[in-house]
Fold these 2 entries.
Entry 1:
Amino acid sequence: MTTDAAETTAEGLVTPPAGVPGGSGESGGAAEEVKNILSEAERNFLSGRTGRGTETGSPTGAGRADSEAADAGARADGEDGGTGGTDGTTPRRGRRGHRQENPLIRGTLIAVSLVFAALMLVLPLLAVLSQAFGAGWDNFVRSVTDTFTVKALKLTLLTSLVAVTANTLFGLTAAWALTRYRFRGQGLLVTLIDLPFAVSPIIAGLIFILTYGRLGWAAPFLEAHDLKIVFATPGIIMATVFVTIPFVAREIIPVLAARGTDEEQAAVLMGAGFFRTFFQVTLPHIRWALVYSVILCSARAMGEFGAVSVVSGHLRGKTNTLPLHIEILFNEHHYREAFAVSAILVITSIVILTARSLVEWVSKKEEEPGVR
Amino acid sequence: MFVELRDVSKRFGNFDAARKVSFELEKGTLAALLGPSGSGKTTILRMIAGLETPDGGDIFLDGQSIKNLEPSRRGIGLVFQNYALFRYMTVWENIAFGLKTKRTPKAGIKERVGELLTLIGLEDLAGRYPAQLSGGQKQRVAFARALAPNPRFLLLDEPFAAIDAKVRRELRSWLREMISRLKITSIFVTHDQAEAIEVADRIIVTNRGRVEQTGAPIELYRSPATPFVARFIGESTVVRNYNVLTGFENAPDGAECAIRPEFVRLFAPSEPVQYENSVQPGRVSAMAFRGDVLEVTVRVRDFSLATSYSLERPSLSVGDQVKVLIYRLYAFQGDQARLVGNSLLANGGGGYNFQI
Amino acid sequence: MAKAKRIIPGFGLTMGLTMSYVGFFVLIPMVSMALVTADLSFKEIVKSATDARVLSSYKVSFLCSFLAAAINTVFGTILAWVLVRYRFAGRRLVDGLIELPFALPTAVAGISLTWLTTNKGWIGGPLSKLGLEIAYTRVGIVVALTFITLPFMVRSIQPVLEQLSPDYEEAGRTLGAGSLTIFRKIILPELKPAMLTGFSLAFARGLGEYGSVIFIAGNKPFQTEIAPLMIVTRLEEFLYGQATAVALFMLAASFIIMFLVNRLQIRAARFVES
């Protein structure tokens, strides 16, 4: 009987995804059709026009030369960083590839993308904002100035501040240690740093409960010293730190690794110590990657839910972060309030995304001093 | 001796980068560490600089062991292969860096940097970043940066490798002139024998982690101590079983030798030869005009020997029979090379009789 | 390769800090998990990890994560393609929004998607009139996971497309190949490794995702209960051993997936190179 239930749901579920790739199949079909309908000359005309049309849209020749000069020198820098390194090649993209692209395929694909992005990315944002402000500004203000909300906000800020600061320092030292020296167990260390990415946030929370919880092996020690970690602020901070450990390190390691150690060697040979070498020689190379990764790390730290939910104990006004507070409000059917609090986080993440794009843009412009 | 390496060794895993390397240099010498890639020359340079720690042996500078001295306290300037200029500092800041770490007073830094900028002729570019400089300019800045703290010893790692051929010639003579003007003892690493011969006072030839021979360029050319040096310096043809050659019948079977172009002389069939019994028949297999002489490849028995032939002599063409006289050659015995003269010539082939 | 002396300064300082930090925040907690596991008998582990309700939660998690990753393989590839190859109004905006699921707290995404898809929401409302339900069904879980894992796919494929020289396609075109042929024979093989990476990242992330799913899933045992929720449920019952057993199974599963996909990827990469 239970299996039956599962089966029906599964069947119901098959429909939308199957229909979804169907959409792309359609566009493929359309492509074939267009190919058959249009004569050679017509196609050439259309593609020629498309080509010119986009040429104007793409950056000027000078802009291209710029980016190429920068490429020559500092491409290897990988300042664009891993996940979001997209804008660096912006002037390059779409320069040629679509010159002969069929306009119908092009249109269809753009339309599919825009619809998908609108449904998946824009609509959820609009939903939150409309629900938050739907009942007017006063309601919104009342929801977000509620005592528990303010307390949750404070805890979220504190947690993020500590976690981001700690992980930034860690990321820098780890990246330095992993790229400036060779030692045994380097691979293992990288794996350990990556581990939090591979582990479910729930498991991240679980391991802290198992360590510092009432039944954890560290419990006797903690009780003897009257320390409370789980179901208290330290636990929330530690779980957040765990989940965001890889962010800064992972962003900076490839940048430093790609650059080699020549400049540091030269500095050392001229008598520079660790701090002078780091701040004057190394840091300028990684500053954008650093800013970028700190932004991403902050986003994750503020929004972390699963791990924090496990270790928090949901003590309202004490161990609730904003995301946990939202959960409680939502589950208690205070939708208006839940969305109002969510709006704070939505606006924050939009700010973060904008900052991210800005950093990418600026870092591209300044990839290497002197390259204009 | 100003610089002395004594039995310096270094291993990387299973790779011997330096095996009991020893050599000495007098003060003011400009020396070349010459060898093929992987011969350990850069490792030797880095050990002197202190960027690599030798597994054994000792390094002396001005009579004092520097093996355990911090790299920055050795009084050594190093020009890196790719210059390793600080990319986020201007030319001025790059040169001043080594002075700032030594807590030189501001006025002193300003004066010294200005002096060096004048020396390298880049006063106008003080505010530029490395990315805005040409290869040659970067090289000059790297040179000035290494010189700024007044090192007693200057090391240059492949200083011309990253520069295109045209500028390289210019830069070579510039560097040569700078160093002799400053009278600073220097070693530069290179894999280009022509560069070493042209620039250096002394050449240290390395091969597979060992020093093959140390000497003035002309010494190495005239009396290579090992088969490797005979092959590596100057042009030569290596020949096996050379006891089939007229005048060298006494050589053991299977022995190898190197024959330089100037050791071979060709005579047209019509030309008289003083020692008719010391020549052997050969056939011209290729000819190339080199501007002032002809470069002739001649087939003698199974060997192809290269030599030059004056335009003033009776004309030759490919396929012609010629008489080939081999004055002398470098006979290889184990890891030694020895000059051996043609036994049928009156003076036994003699040696070089020029002096520089 | 341990050297007697390290030339660049700061080895002791940075290594010391790095090791202590990783030790304290990663190693010690992970060791606790091993300790708890060691206390359990093999039988107990198997029993807790294969309980009927737990088994059905795995099924839900794997199925929904797989579908979400599959959906993203299609739409993520199209999005990446469009963003790399075409210029159009709003391109930069879409490009910037791709990372929204990374930046938006999962709980916010969860309640927002839930509200949208319930029968009172903008999307769920019209659909419920057609008899289609998203919220509180497995379809809802797939929707949430699709949202969460979208950036993995797009960001895996984008750099590869950017590197892909248009010369190949132009060569193909001059040889008379049609758009579909060019895509299938020239572009798709180049993208395969990146698609596999994106898929595996999305799939693995989907298995572990919690925050965005629990709101929309409805969490009905045997129907819409995901595996991470089972861990939480067991923890709330103070059954630490059972929670750990489920966690172990999940960890093993995600490592195996990553391993398999890695091998596939290596193969695909080799094929592309040759």
Entry 2:
Amino acid sequence: MDEQLSFEEALTRLERITQTLEEGGLKLEEAIALFEEGMKLAKICNERLNAAELKISQLQTPFEQGLESKDEPP
Amino acid sequence: MKIYSVAEVTGYLRELLEADSLLTDLWVSGEVSNLSESAAGHLYFTLKEEASQLRCVLFHRARLALTLENGMAVVAHGRISIYEVSGTLQFYVDLVQPEGMGILHLEFERLKAKLAEEGLFEPARKRALPPFPQRIGVVTSPDSAVLHDIINIISRRYPLVELVLSPTPVQGDGATLGIVQAFDALNDTEGIDLVILARGGGSLEELQAFNEEKVARAIYASRAPVISGVGHDTDFTIADFVADKRAPTPSAAAELAVPHRVELEGRLQSHSRALVAALSREFERYRQRIDELTRVTTMHLGNLLTISREKLRGRELKLGSLSPLATLGRGYALVQHSATGEVISHINQVHRGDAIEVKVSDGQFKSRVTGLKKGLQAWMNSFPSKKR
């Protein structure tokens, strides 16, 4: 599975897999393959949640630039 | 010097009046008198004080929040112009409120009515919030308690996002422009899929920027959907009405912005369980199919076996009729030399005195040859002849 999937994509794919598997009627090999992919997706999602750290950045707005120039010593 | 026509003068006056920024957007308080209604539904009245009067006209009655009556003390909003047909100065009223409201409140009501009419608050126009945002713009004051609350809440609930702060003052001079510029900056930033506009509680004056038309239009024009979280639960600002989603407080805005990891972990767990259950069911289904096939196959084998057994019995019966035992049963005997076991079928195989064994259907006995006679003529002759 693509490791670059976003959390949302991984979760959406997991939901689709669960649904497909629950509908049944698959060949056994297909069912097993989907099961394995689904479990892997669930694991990846969990790991993402546990490993993530909030990223914070700040835009330069005219206000912020004004603040900075005021901070400079006279 | 030149001589002007009346139309030139009234036209010039109209241009002057309509170019004046005060006269094109003002509130006037006074008492209603001389109220009349035209056939077309326009209202004509006079606003008066002790020694002053202002001619007023109110076209359409769409924004009339109350029923006008003579003697009523009101505050009216509109613009001053000249009615050239009669050369009279008129106050073109577009909104009337009862007297007693502060100017901020009056402006709030006016702007709210105006933007509502323009469709800025339409529920159909509100955009859905992304269920899993990736870059959230935050328009608020930097280094404020509000910002720290937002960071904490989102970090705890769903740390998979990037917060992009777009700093602005949120009260006083420059707040309105700052908020507009903060939205501009976010609109120019790639990948922003949600914006939180937040400010802590305050008086109506302190929240004024969030009741400004420019801020309302900036929210409306935002590329990403906007959650407003301004003031306390009881504060409603114009920004709240325009925002795609109104949160009662800044913290509530942060909570609305992202899913909760506990809920997500629960979802992941229930999916894992559902996967296991579904695969078990598949296995069970196949096991049952195998059982069924085995049963059917065994049944067929059983049938084959029965058929074979019957065939076998048929063969046995046929064989039985060929068996020497059956012949013995009919009174014939098997005669063998005692010494060699040689079966005796011809008279010259034996001599007087030979020891022989005779087998009949249910036993055997030993005997000895005591006499010999070739041919069976005499025996045959003892049978009755058909010829005779």
